[in-house]
Specification:
The protein contains six helices and six strands. It is α/β, with parallel strands linked by helices and 148 residues long. Strands 1, 2, 3, 4, 5 and 6 form a six-stranded mixed β-sheet that branches.
Length: 148
Amino acid sequence: MIPSDIIRPRSIVRLAAANKAALFRALAKKAAEQLALPEAVILDALNRREALGSTGVGGGLAMPHAPVEGLAEPFGLLARLEKPVAYEAIDGAPVDLVCLVLTPVNGGKGRIDALACIAKRLRPAEIRERIRNAAGGEDIYALLLEES
């Protein structure tokens, strides 16, 4: 599995959110639009997962993820935020890059594979910085396609 299996060009967005709750609502709305699933179902899944512990992985990156009823295959959405948001990340830093990963409820190993492939690609600080500085979604998508 590679990042482009999960994140499509139209799934690279720019978002504005005042706080983590507003960010989750915006992510759920964008995902619902692309997946034709109810926004409330996605938001509930994200909130239930986040209640287990923060998905802020550090370095300004968050990777909220959850299994979602009615989803047939993994889905990813990469968002650059207009302004960083307090997120309770492991390093205490605010988040300005968010990679949402939604998986089928019975995703099994596919869920781990989806998260691992995205995390591996976004782990290097240089890649995150290039995403922050990219002109737009096409440039970001090209970064995701590059060999690591």
